[in-house]
User: What shape does this take?
Amino acid sequence: MFDQVSLGKRKGTIVAVMKGQTEVLAYTKGLMFNFRKLKWVDTKWKVSRSGKEVYFFGKGDMITQKSEKPYQNVYVTRFDLQQDQILEINEIGNAMLYMGLGIAPNATQLRAFGRALIHPFGIGLR
Assistant: This one.
C-alpha cells in the first residue's frame, strides 16, 4: 500500500484530514489521551518527486487507555507541504478497526473524520 499511495495511485481510504498546526496538535493530543502505548513499527518515510508531499508508513503497535485492548493498524500518512510548512495531513488506515475500539473522538478528531467523509478518496459512502 505504501508504494502505491506514495506514487499517487491512491490505494487505501483517507480516514482523517487535518489542516493547520492547531488541528494537528489537537488530533495528536487525542491520540495521546486515548492510548497508553502509542508506537509505530516498521516505519518508512518517502518524499515525493515534487517535494510537495512527504509520506509516512508505519504499523501501529498500541494499547488503548481505558480498555487496555491491543490495537494494530497499518497507516500511510501524507503530509502536504508549502514553503517547508505542513498545510494538510491525510491519514490512510482501516477506519472500521479504529471505530471498533469504541473510543469517543475529541472535537478536532471529529472534524478530521468529517472531512474524510467528503474527501474524494475518503471514507464516505459511494
Observations:
- Residues 20-34 form the longest helix (15 residues).
- Residues 1-10 have pLDDT under 50 and may be disordered.
- The first strand starts at residue 14 and ends at 19.
- The helical segments are 2-6, 20-34, 95-99, 107-118.
